Amino acid sequence: MPPTLASLVHHSALKLTVRAGEDRLDVPVRWAHVSELADPVPYMEGGELLLITALQLDAEDPEAMRRYVKRLAGAGVVGLGFAVGVNYDEIPGALVEAARDEGLPLLEVPRRTPFLAISKAVSAEIAADQYRSVTAGFAAQRELTKQALTGGPEGLLAALASQVDGWAALYDASGAVVATAPEWAGRRAARLTADVERLRERPAPASSVVGGSGTSDNDDRVELHSLGTGRRPRSALAVGTAAALGTAERYAVHSAIALLTLTTERSRSLQAAEQRIGAAVLRMLLAGEPEHARTVAGDLYGGLLDAPFRLIVAETVAVSSVRIAADAPTRVPSAAALAAAADIDGDPLAALTEVVESAAARSGEAVLVVPERKRLVVLAADGGAAVTACGEYAVALEAARTHEQAGAGDEDELVVGVSAPVGPIAAAAAYKQAEQALSVARRRGRMYVEHEQLASGSVLPLLADDAVRAFADGLLRPLYEHDATGRGDLVASLRAWLSRHGQWDAAAADLGVHRHTLRYRMRRVEEILGRSLDDPDVRMELWLALKATASAE
After folding, report:
1. In what order do the strands lie in the sheet with 177-181?
2. What is the pTM of this model?
3. Helical spans, DSSP H, in 167-246
C-alpha cells in the first residue's frame, strides 16, 4: 500500500502528533511538499502532505486561516504538517479550529523533526510500495509462464483471473469466445462481442476499457486488448475486475498478452515476443530500473546492455517541413543505403526498421526496435552496424531528396535524432538527448542529427522560429513605436548598451551621444516596457529579442 497519514503518524522516528482530522488519516499520501507561500494551491496536484512553518501566514487570524485551509482542502491536499518551535511555539488556535471545521488532518511536527525526514519517509514508503508491486508483477509473470507451458491458454487465463481477482476471456479473430476463467464468466464475455469487433477495426496493438451492458450485475470494469503482430489483430483478451488495475496486476496483464500472442500466433511468435520484451526493457530503462531491465532482457537483449549504446528516435513530418540544409554533413552513404532509400514504399518508419534490423542481423548484433505511436525508438550498440546503417540511410534520403525537393509530393519525410553513447543507468537522459536532436533536425531542415552535433555552430539559428519572432516583436513593439514618433532612438541605444555589457561610456561613444543622454534613454526603456534593466533575465530576453528581429530583417 502507498503511504498514508496514519503510517506517518505511527512512524516512530517522526514523532508526529495529530491536532485535527483524526478520522481522515487513512488517505494515501502522494508526496510531502514544503511551501511557505501564502497561497501554494497553484503548485499542488492533489494528494500532498503540505509542510509549513507559517513564515508568510498570519496564523492567528481566524478568517485568514479559514480561507487558507479551505483552499488547501479544495485543491486535494490530504494533510497539513505544522513545525512548532520555529515561528510559533505551538500551533495557533485559529489554524487548529479551521482545520477541524474543514476536516483537514493537521499534524504537529516537533522542532527536532526536520521536514526532510518526513519527505524521506514518504519517498521510502512509495519506493517500497512500487518495489512490492514490481516484485509481485514478476512473480505473476513466472506463474503465468508456467501455466501457459503446462495448461495452454486455458491454464494461463485461470492464472490471470486469479492474479487480478477477476475474470479473463480469450476471443478468436471473429470475436467468438474461445475460453474463459472462471467458467461463470462465459456469459459475461459473450456480451462483449460487439466491443471486440470494434477493437479489431483499429491497428494493433490496441486496447479499450468498456463497462457492463447496463444491468445491475454487470458493473465491473473490463479491459480489452488486441493480440497479434500484424496490422490487424488475430485475437483479443478481455480482463474484468471490480476496480482499475494496480501495478502488479498491470504487469500480469501485460505478461498474459505476450504469452497469449506466442500461443495463438505461432507463425509470428518470435517477432511478437521480441517486440513486447523489447518494449518492456525500454520502459524499465526509461523508468530508471536497469537491473529489472537486465532481468527481463535475458539472453535476447542482455548483451546490448553490457556496452555503451545509443538511443535513436525517428518520426515522420510533412515534406514541406523538411528543408535540406546547406550545412548538412557531407557523409557518403553506402550502396545498400542508397538502394534502400530508392526503394522506400511510402512508410519511412517501416523502411528504417527494415534497414536497421537487416544490418543488425547481418552483423550478428542485437538491436531493440520499439514502435511508439507515430515514432520509432531504437536502442543499438554504439559504433555497431545498426547505428551506422541508420545514419547512412538518412543521409541517402537527404541526397535523394536534394534533387527532388522542388517537385516533392505529399509523402512524409523521415527525421532522426540520435543520442550520445550511454549505459543503462543513463537511458532516460539518452532518450531526452535523442528527442533534442530530433527537434534540432526539424528546425535545421536535416533528416539526421546526432546529439554531439548540437553544441556546434551558434544558438542564433534556433531563434528563426515564428513563435520566437512573435515574442520578440511583441516585446520590442513599444520601443519601435516610440522611435517612429521621432522622439529618440531607443532600440539602437538599447542594442548598443547591451552589446557593451552595460558600460555607459563605451556604449555612448558607439552612439555618438553623451552618457547622460544614454542613461535617460535606458530609463525611458524601463518606463515603456515596465521592466528593470538591472534584472539579468530581462537583459537576456531583450538581447535575444533584438537578435531574433535582426535575423528576420
Report:
1. 177-181, 167-171, 235-241, 221-227, 207-210
2. 0.40
3. 185-190, 193-200
